[in-house]
Write a structure and sequence with these properties.
The structure is a homodimer of 449-residue chains. Chain A is of the alpha/beta class and 449 residues long. In chain A, helix 7 (196-209) runs parallel beside helix 9 (238-248). The two termini of chain A are 48 Å apart. Chain A has 3 domains: 2-104, Rossmann fold, CATH 3.40.50; 123-268, Rossmann fold, CATH 3.40.50; 277-448, Rossmann fold. Chain A has helices at residues 2-11, 56-65, 83-99, 140-143, 146-152, 170-179, 196-209, 221-231, 238-248, 256-268, 284-296, 306-313, 334-347, 363-371, 379-399, 414-420, 430-448, and strands at residues 27-28, 31-32, 46-49, 70-73, 102-104, 111-112, 132-136, 156-161, 185-190, 212-216, 251-253, 277-281, 326-327, 353-357, 403-406, 426-427. In chain A, the strands form 4 sheets. The first copy, chain A, has a 6-stranded mixed beta sheet with strand order 6-8-7-9-10-11, sandwiched between helices. In chain A, strands 13-12-14-15-16 form a 5-stranded parallel beta sheet, sandwiched between helices. The first copy, chain A, has 17 helices and 16 strands. The relative contact order of chain A is 0.08. In chain A, helix 16 links the parallel strand 15 (403-406) and strand 16. Helices cover 44% and strands 13% of the residues of chain A. The interface between A and B is large, with 89 and 89 residues.
């Protein structure tokens, strides 16, 4: 396990110095290894402990004796398992206090900081750094989700697997990310909060600065039972947590997809000034789905300003609609749909944000050409689409209004990949786009209060 | 547009005879073309009309005169647009009555029947045929969704874009699919139902035979406004529709993803006899998320029977949990996790269905090997995984109990692709798996009443 962690850190391009500690080997993956912590050159900033449970207190003591003041304790087998584990966990807390060591864990998967190539977890980090700071009581939601996050174009600023929280807990990490300038939105996965009042205080201060989204799973009978064996958490009543979140101004979600997708949007899009949305599509079904979801999530669909409406009308064929939602129907006008119309719409003082379904790329044209048995070079078209998407991606910053898109095509369409990788969220269904927009609007209301 | 439709039908391998009708061309895509409907060899089963709006009544009349009794009218520009369109739509209804022509449309995208390679839509059908019969007032949800459905492994038996429903409406199509043996579950996308009582009658009779899932978007102020310009629908109050669905035993959803994903599960998995679920994972976060979602969606997590529990215990390391949910923790035992344990669990009389998160494949191993700079041949391992997945996929049929899985890895992992393509649903998040399981259980309750 230690080897895999080392490999991932090396692969992530960590620029700092790494000292493997190994009882027998002289070198590990080309790095000089040390038999004991006491053999290490000084100073060492952080110790990462991936060891059999019983050895952990002993090695932590050694760390303390040798001036190491920070640790990430990956090893499991502590209070989540049995009484012996509980005793060992108390031991490491006692040792840490003695030497003033602050540590993450035990029973965690580690910490990822992609900007400095720091990733001592079991999984490679596949995406460029982003604005989402994650604090998670599940290591899976730090690591196993990485392929999904890369697919969606959601990047971590820092991701912290807090494990059993024998020392640093969710509130400590929240306080840290609250001041971290690279973190634009904080996502929390919670099975248990220990000091409710302290959490509430920290969260309240944080939410003034940046949005916080939380998934809490320990409050139902099923969740509570699972949480005990997972992190040894004694989870509390769901209603109590719901109240804490509400008081703190934390946006609560009920699925891990919402957690990351809403956090991703909150980290990269400007807040809408009000609930007035425009919908732009070339298909009636998603237009109606988006409009229906808008009403359900307290967003409005006003008329466009008269002069904007007149200018929009020029892009719409007679079978289409220049009302809001705009349905362009089946028209192949990539620049119109993905640049000219969005620009017009965002300029409308009557509109606070834009939802687009059905981003156009080369997939459809390619299908047609393939069906016709024609071979075609898409290089120029791809270039044109990339330029258009680039323009669209610049608009939220330029006009101070959010854009969220959806499409049934995934990353295999380059336009989708390009958008997701350039801070323009593109979800897999129209309703998801609307719900994320509603989260943005909700945070704008939280900020106002 | 007609050319693209022809291309897709040819590409889909339609075995029947196709006669292109074209005013000028002598051949179209290698097929002999005819200048007039009256020139066609007889009999012709179905006419597909993709024409300028004004020409449609005239050509339909010609169809009637030449003995054609079925039509799919793709053309738009009718009652969804203006008064002139309304008049033209009345015209085609009158002509159809005169000649006893039954037709789908106008303003639709066509009908897909993948088993016979029939696909005169604008998009290629990318997946093998399946058990989901779709009736949709949106052409997009018949066609633009195809890449998404292929990704998820959800196949159509038949998909019908009903358009303006000037003749055949949702109830007619529902009656048809109700008797269609290839259709195992019916998915409805509804913006308006015209004759509520008839729909209720047909739906009630259908639900006794097979499950029906419905997405209704026309009942909110936003949805109603969008629906008018889309299909000219005068949508009704959301509560009224909700009551109709409840009375009929139709399972209502609020997103297009749920529509297809629940329908996909209902079409391929046996119904659970009760609400007692087992959760099997190797990670605590998803275990807790699934357990929490189970409670929220009225599913239970009982203890395993004592003898089964004893046998499960053998597969679990000391840091894991043989409780329900089972958390195997980070153990690489593909056969244990994906075959031996599921078999044990499904044999337990105390368990009605199984949820698995974190299907194991070669992705992780591949990442580790790549990080280590090792080149490796995965052929044997892939074969082993395919065999294991095959075994898992056979279990729902064998034990009469459903299995639903989730993973954060997508189709790039062959194990996931293989599962999805062999009727073993694998969703993108643990909560989605649970919600689909809850839909299965709900239908089992509907059947019982």
């Amino acid at each position: 396990m230690g080897t895999v962690q080392l490999l991932n850190t090396l692969r992530a391009g960590y620029k700092g110095v790494i000292y493997p500690v190994h009882p027998k080997e002289k070198t590990v993956r080309g790095l000089r290894a040390y038999a004991h912590v006491s053999d290490l050159p000084k100073p060492v900033d952080t110790a990462i402990l991936t060891l059999p449970t019983k050895v952990v207190p002993w090695v932590l003591e050694e760390c303390g004796q040798n001036g190491i003041r920070h640790a990430i304790i990956i090893s499991g087998g502590f209070k989540e398992v049995d009484d012996e584990g509980k005793r060992l966990e108390k031991d490491i807390s006692r040792i840490a206090k003695k030497y003033k060591i602050r540590f993450i864990g035990p029973n965690c998967i580690g910490v990822i900081n992609p900007r400095i190539g720091f990733n001592p977890t079991m999984f490679p980090y596949l995406h460029h750094p982003g604005g989402v700071g994650l604090i998670s009581q599940s290591g899976t939601y730090v690591t196993q989700v990485l392929p999904y996050l890369a697919r969606m174009g959601i990047g971590f600023s820092k991701a912290i697997s807090v494990g059993n929280m024998a020392d640093l807990d969710i509130s400590d990490c929240l306080e840290y990310l609250s001041d971290d300038t690279e973190t634009k939105c904080i996502a929390l996965y919670i099975e248990e909060i220990r000091e409710g009042q302290r959490f509430l205080d920290v969260a309240r201060r944080t939410v003034i600065k940046k949005p916080v989204v939380a998934l809490y799973t320990g409050g139902t009978s099923g969740g509570a039972k699972a949480a005990v064996s997972h992190t040894g958490s004694m989870a509390g009543n769901d209603m109590i947590y719901d109240n804490i979140f509400r008081q703190a101004g934390i946006i609560r979600v009920y699925s891990v997809e919402d957690l990351f997708e809403w956090a991703g949007v909150l980290a990269c899009q400007p807040l809408p000034k009000g609930p007035k949305m425009a919908i732009l599509t070339h298909s009636g079904g998603p237009a109606t789905s988006m409009a229906d979801a808008c009403t359900r999530h307290h967003l409005q669909l006003p008329e466009f300003s008269p002069d904007i409406k007149k200018r929009i009308q020029k892009f719409i064929p007679p079978t289409g609609s220049a009302q809001n939602p705009i349905d362009m129907t089946f028209v192949i006008d990539i620049k119109g749909m993905m640049a000219d119309m969005p620009r017009l719409i965002l300029k409308d003082p009557n509109i606070d944000g834009l939802l687009i379904h059905g981003i156009m790329g080369i997939t459809w044209i390619k299908n047609v050409k393939e069906a016709a048995g024609e071979i075609h070079d898409y290089f120029q078209m791809e270039q044109f689409i990339a330029d258009t998407v680039d323009e669209l991606a610049s608009m939220p910053g330029k006009y101070g209004k959010p854009i969220i898109c959806s499409s049934f095509i995934d990353r295999e369409e380059k336009a989708i990949a390009y958008m997701r990788d350039h801070n323009l969220p593109n979800f897999t269904s129209p309703e998801k786009a609307v719900r994320a927009m509603a989260a943005l609007y909700r945070y704008s209301l939280i900020r106002k209060r």
